[in-house]
Amino acid sequence: MKKARTGALPREADLYAPVKALLAAQGYDVKGEVRGCDVVGVRGDEPPVIVELKRAFGLGLVLQGVDRLALSDRVYLAVGAWPKRLRDVRKLCRRVGLGLIVVAVARAEIVLDPQPYAPRKNAKRVGRLLGEHARRIGDPTQGGVTRRPIMTAYRQEALRCAALLAARGPMTPKALRAADDVPNAGKILLDDVYGWFERVAHGVYALTDRGRAGLQRFAWRTDSVPAPASTPMSPKPHARTAKKKSDLVTGQSVGDGVAPAPESLVGE
Asked: Which CATH number do you get for residue 209?
């Protein structure tokens, strides 16, 4: 069915919320900008659903979608306007195994579901995609955005390291790993991709001014870092030491000439 075309084309970022709502309603855990994919939805052990966003349909979008078929059979192209040659567009998408979604008036509508198509999968890329999705906390980056840093799982872990150093001062990678969920603390501090850390002693790192600026830029709270472990209680004194102290209190000690009580001998 041919739809009316009114108004200006929306931005790519404006397509994200309707597409996310569409997938979330079907039980998918949806996140934006994961390993180069605009939208990724995961549901249980099923293959991921990948959606590429564009304001209008074009060859570049098709080529992008075909590339994503190396990651999943469930790849959709989402556009912000009904294509002029909808019938031909549907045929093209069906031939290459892509689905089609049209976002109109802030509502996403599935025009075509992906048809069976089995290109050779890249297991390494699939592992990286799902790994990034699993490690990333929350959904910090809106799908389709450009000209701004993407909040990757690596950046989130680096920010957790920076927050700990800001709150507690210089620390070792081992102490950072024990304090929070930063399993890659050693590599992050050593590589120092963002220039946030500096080594102040052997195996000890501190936060730089650039690191403090990074915490402010990404509005990362430092007051929510886990509290340091409490100091363990002093061990109880040894029984022999305690007995000697008790004897001193009563005025008797081993050296006062008071004979200890005779011990029973075995066999008597």
From this structure: 1.10.10.10
